[in-house]
Write a structure and sequence with these properties.
With 276 residues, this protein is mainly β. It has one domain: Jelly Rolls (Sandwich). The protein is 1% helix and 42% strand. It contains one helix and 17 strands. Strands 1, 2, 3, 5, 10, 11, 14 and 16 form an eight-stranded antiparallel β-sheet that branches. Strands 9-8-7-6-15-4-17 form a seven-stranded antiparallel β-sheet, with no helix packed on it. Strand 1 (39-41) and strand 2 form a beta hairpin. The two termini are 24 Å apart.
Length: 276
Amino acid sequence: MKMVKKLLLGLAATAAILALVSCEGVNVGGADSIEGNIINGTTTRAYVGKKAADGITNDDTSTIREMKLFATKHKGAFAALTLTGEESGKAANGQLGYVFNYTENEDDTVNFITIGFRYGSQDGKSTKFNTYVSQFYNIDPTQFSETNFGCKATKPKYDATVKTPYEIEVATLPTDLNFVTFGTEDPTVGVEVIAEDNGSYTINYYAASKLNKYKLIKNSVVDKTITVSSDVTGRTTLKETKLGCYAAVYPGKTLKGSWRFSSIKGEDLPVEGFED
């Protein structure tokens, strides 16, 4: 996933849990927010832009990105990712992402898994919705503005002896999501992340027809599954970790989209906000 050249990161190590705001979830951002100009809204519906329909235009010559994490740790969650503003046959405007297995090392570097969702490709040659899944290790937050989080090395599995940045490509971009299409509604994919007892993760993808008001319909058949093995996570037991969302906006493009999280495993929403 070597397409990202600039990162706007909405994280702060000392962020507090935000106050509960009605049944619509908790406000994203607030007084402790850093940057915070890409992802806004609530935990029930976060979106790209200051308002839900605005989106973000990138006037820069390189990709910009922002990441927001839940303030507490979880086993997993279901999220409906919706892209608006994409046009069939046109080049991609950017991507929406789901972040999980986010942990911190003693040397202040971080580790995380990213799932990307986009239409087509940056060069316009692809006309299918697609995804990728990658685990990143030993990432220096000050290098997030560099290509691929400043990570230039790849490995097939977790290696505790390596303290420099590396990536494990679980599913490379573009991995097709043939069941996601343009229709009368904005293109949406359901993504379910499940932390397993053996330290692995199961990622289930669902077509929009399996959702009701952006929540997964009970007993729905999975459309695609990607497994993140314990060889990737380096664990043999279940661990609650931080999760959240991110957005990447390509140069000269306007990205519009939203995330709706539900079925949180572990500490429940909406009694928490995003970590800023």
